[in-house]
Specification:
This protein is about 30% helix and about 25% strand. The protein is of the alpha+beta class. The strands form 4 sheets. It has a 7-stranded mixed β-sheet with strand order 3-4-5-6-7-8-9, with helices on both faces. Strands 11-10-12-16-14 form a 5-stranded mixed β-sheet, with helices on both faces. Strand 5 and strand 6 form a beta hairpin. It is globular and about 50 Å long. The N and C termini lie far apart (about 40 Å). The model has no long low-confidence stretch (mean pLDDT about 95).
Length: about 270
């Protein structure tokens, strides 16, 4: 596929992400109406829905033959037969958004035959714009980014939830890592891509819209992004969910995969 085709997709995503940021900031710190989704799926607000409407209008208007997968849209099985698909999280880190924190992001990706080819993760409050295409290097605000050189799991800095401290998740003892957290999973992957943290792991199921865009950004920076068993990520699946997530530079990634139990807790 010609490089300029990927760049055209990236330009479309970038323009849409900037517009999404403008909409989100109209609601941020203005106490938008919000409620909890069913089955403990977390909060959603009128801001999430407004951003989703904007993105769907812009992106599907420009590419009407593409499939659509978004956290805030009813899933349409027709996406499974689409060659290319948009995979979108309108506001990743809604809880942070509702708490007036600026670490929420807009995560936008185009995938072709299961592989992400163009991606944007944009944090409007922090003015951070992570981008990548499948045949280029990852950029932050237009400049190349690189991961850390850490190779040992003990002492590594990892972005993850407290679930990772459960000894049943590990083969042997829990590693002596230094755990931190950010509400936006997409932002966590980007922080690893730019070397501010050594790894990020999710030992529960990971939704495609949370990780599609950021997984390409991580990979094009030189980081491995797989499920908890070390299997490559493949997108536009029927369940739209992965068996966990392990993201780290190659040598460190192998150490995490060796230590993590391959199956999630029952």
């Amino acid at each position: 596929m010609p490089a300029n085709d990927y760049l055209e997709e990236l330009a479309l995503l970038s323009e849409a992400a900037e517009a999404a940021g403008e909409v989100a900031l109209r609601y941020w710190k203005h106490a938008p109406s919000a409620w909890e989704k069913a089955d403990g799926a977390g909060p959603v607000s009128v801001a999430d829905l407004a951003v989703n409407d904007l993105l769907e209008s812009r992106l599907r208007g420009a590419r009407p033959d593409y499939g659509w997968l978004s956290e805030e849209s009813v899933d349409d099985p027709a996406r499974l037969s689409a060659k290319r698909i948009f995979i979108i999280d309108p506001i990743d880190g809604t809880r942070a958004f509702l708490n007036d924190e600026g670490s929420f992001s807009h995560a936008l990706a185009v995938a072709e035959n299961g592989h992400v080819i163009a991606a944007v993760v944009y944090l409007p409050v922090m003015n951070l714009n992570y981008t990548a295409v499948a045949d280029g290097h990852s950029l932050l605000n237009g400049r190349p980014i690189h991961p850390s050189q850490t190779t040992q799991i003990d002492g590594s800095t990892v972005l993850t939830s407290r679930l990772s401290d459960d000894p049943r998740q590990w083969e042997g003892e829990i590693p002596d890592y230094r755990r931190s957290f950010r509400p936006s999973l997409a932002y966590r992957l980007c922080l690893v891509a730019e070397g501010r943290f050594d790894a990020t792991i999710s030992l529960r199921g990971a939704w495609e819209w949370d990780i599609a865009a950021a997984s390409l950004i991580a990979e094009r920076a030189g980081v491995l992004a797989t499920d908890r068993k070390g299997k490559p990520l493949h997108f536009n699946t029927p369940s739209a969910q992965m068996n966990g997530l392990v993201v780290a530079p190659p040598v460190l990634h192998a150490e995490y995969i060796r230590r993590i139990r391959p199956l999630p807790l029952p």
